[in-house]
User: Fold this.
Amino acid sequence: MKRISDLDNKNKKNPRNIIAQVDKILRRNDIIYWLEAGTALSAVRDGKIFDWEHDIDIGVWKHDIKKILNALDDFKKEGYKINIQKGMPFVDNIIQLYCPLGDDGAKPFPDQIDIYLYTKKNDYVYMRWLQKPEGLFAKKRKQLFEFSVLMVNEKLRRFKSIILRIPINLRLFIFKVILKLHVMTSSCIYHRFPSKYFDHLKEIDFYGVKVNVSADTDSYLAYRYGENWKIPDSHFNQAGKWRGVKARVLLKMSYLAIPSIDIELVKKYTYE
Assistant:
């Protein structure tokens, strides 16, 4: 497989370079994916990535995690830096890929891929923001949880050397206890969609690459961004309008299972 720097070098701002390689690696690993969030909106409505964006949003099924981890090895071989769950020792809702620089050191466009993992339950699919508790004492809950992550991920720059004096097995035990308490006693925002939106996909042409989007595109984007999604709104994020869309719901973290811990993930896939 050609590296990014070898592809279409005449135009470093051509997103096709990145899109084509991401599509090829995911398809080669038999991973069903679709354009998600702002990338789906910009692709369908404007036919391009928004000028102010630097990343691509992709959705996948969480039950494909074994295939996804295999694909991550392929991305690493191509020079991508990888961060799973923002340095946490489990996979729940997000994997971030940082694209390799060109031979001249220039950043490609886009320079980051955000992969969101969805879980199907009953007639809906869910993506949980476990790392962002809501409600009473949310800030303190988040701080405690983030501290517990530092105890098990020694690759984070914020890691305190004094913690190293605690045996890893004890640190891991403490993390598991805090994670369980965090999930069982907290609420957070979920992205929730009727499963029909991702059960049925269609291909569109995006910078010369065939990529998947929801087959019921208009309905999906209305559910995700509101009925006025076809009208560009530069204040959508700044004005907090995204908070009122149907796709965002507040639920108990425990609505989905506690994620399985794998300490090897932080050793292999932590990039700051």
About this structure: Helices lie at 16-28, 37-46, 65-77, 138-152, 168-185, 196-199, 217-225, 263-268. Residues 1-12 have pLDDT under 50 and may be disordered. The chain has two domains: 4-124+195-244+257-268, 129-187.
